[in-house]
Each structure stands twice: as structure tokens, then as C-alpha cells.
Amino acid sequence: MQLVIIGHTQMLYNTALLLHQQGHQVNAVITAEAAPENNCTGEDFQKLADSIEAPFLLTNNLDSLEVIELCRGSDVGISINWKTLFHERHINLFRLGILNAHHGDLPKYRGNACSNWAIIEGDQSITASVHFVEGDKLDCGRIVGKRQLRLNENTTITDIYSWSEKVLPELFVQVLDKLQSDESYTLKYADLDSSESFRCYPRLPEYGFIEWNASVKTIHNLIRATCYPFSGAYTYHVCEGKVRKLIVIKSRIVQSQTKDLAMPGHVIKNDKNSGESWIKSGDGILALAECRYENETEAFLPGQRWTSIRMTLGIRVEDWIYMINTQKT
């Protein structure tokens, strides 16, 4: 088939490369400036386009004459993570329409940061869906391909992205094979107005703040959902009179419930052998396995760096205000 690649991410890069290798004609590669969590840049996509001898365009405007000329006459648009909704006029540039890959078992988990939200909600699986987009509608339409990844209590967003970078290209190949045999092929129709439909909204970096009085599961899920390639779950640590931002990279649940008495956020154990530090949560005990201070580039094992159990993570607003006022006087 004749294709146009539209969007961002390593997943899309790998998809474009595999589709080209499978004999599909890539007529153009269209991308925009990448978000901070996208490790595949516009320059990477330009090098890809050059390597497969396809025109390349860096733009936010799908209504430009250049985009129209590049897309018109192609069979299908292949999209992952384009920034805006497609309008009907964009879809009509292609003979069959635009295929989009989405992390969500549509019509559930429509919208933004769906994999992150699924981890936070404690879901047991994540579904990758490939569907034909509909004009001015978010994540609905004919579903033509699905793959599912089972999650356990330690699966991270990093794991999901790694899985997707391998699985989504294969899924697109499978979908195009089916469409070449039957252009009306449909697994399911994802209805925007379905009773099971719900939307996820963007997650901002500040949503990674750890509330230590929350349950150990809630905190652990937050850490799993915000690690690389995102900015990470974080807390604050008062060290030698200074407030330092601590990013938690990896954790595990030690106990869901404990009878031990300690304030939430208190460090109750530093284990030099494992490198873990154990922290009391609202109901249990969480092990921090890997951390990094914001002003440091290297991660560290807290159990090997910290030596005291007379310390706590998190800081009360009242204490912070007092410290600031004290420094001014």
C-alpha cells in the first residue's frame, strides 16, 4: 500500500521502518516538534525519511498545501501521537482513511496518558488498539487491530513503551495485510457515546508529587506510572538545612499493611546489601530501590547512601514557610 507517516515517538519510527521493509510505499514522513518524553526527534524522522527516500516535513499544520500534496492519492495515513484531532478534510486525502494506534481498549481509555492512568488505576492489562480515525472525534471508529499486555504490580510505563515499540509495528503490518484482503475488515466499532466509554486527560509533571499518607499501593503505582521517559514521581527531603527534590525511579511494596508505628514518609530502614530504603506510607511499607536528586545526573541506591532512620521524606508547608522566612532574616 501507499502510506504517509504522521506523528511522533519511537513506536511510529519503528512502524515506518518495518512497513517499508515489508514492501509498502512510504510516500511521505510528517512530524512536529517532539514532546520532552519522546526520545525520537524530528531529526531522527528526517534521517529515516532520507534513508527510505521519502519526502520529509516538520510542521504543525496539516492544512498546508505542502501536506495536501504529499498526502493526496495515498491509500492510508499511519498515525501515532499526532498533537491534534484529524478533521474530515484530512481523512479524505487518503483512499481508505487514517489509521491511528492508541494505548487503550477503546472505547474505554480514550484521550491522553492512557497507559499512565491504567497503571495508576491498578489495571491488570493494557490494550494497544489500531483504528480508523473519524473526523473531529477522539479515539473512536472502526477498530482493526488489538494486542494486549498483562500487567503485574511491578510493570512500569518504561516496560509498556518498550513492549509497544516492538508490538505496534507488527500490529500495523498485520492490519494492512488484512485490509489488502478485505478493505471492510472490522474487529469492533468504538462508539464515542458507548456506556463503557470514558476519557483520560493529560498528566502534568506536578502530578508526580508523592503524598506519603496515601496507601502504599497508590504511591507505588504513581512511581511506576511516571518513571522514564517521564519526569518521575518526586518528594522533598530536608538535608543539612536545605530542601532537596528527590525523584523516585524504582520501588516495590514490602508490606501492604503494618502494625509498626511511624509517621508517613519516615525512613524506617536502610539496607546496604540490597540498596533499598524502606519508607512508612499511610498503611504499609514501601521500598525505594533507586532514586536521584534533581540537581544530580546519576541515580543512587538510597539504602547505601542514607545511614539514618532519623529522617523523613516530604515536608510540611508550615515547616517550609518557616525555613524560607528564617533564611530571609
TrEMBL record:
Full protein name: Formyl transferase N-terminal domain-containing protein
GO CC entries: cytosol
InterPro entries recorded: Formyl_trans_C, Formyl_transf_N, Formyl_transf_N_sf, Formyl_transferase-like_C_sf
A Pfam family of this chain: Formyl_trans_N
Record GO terms (molecular function): methionyl-tRNA formyltransferase activity
Residue span(s) of domain Formyl transferase N-terminal: 5-176
Domain Formyl transferase C-terminal: 206-295
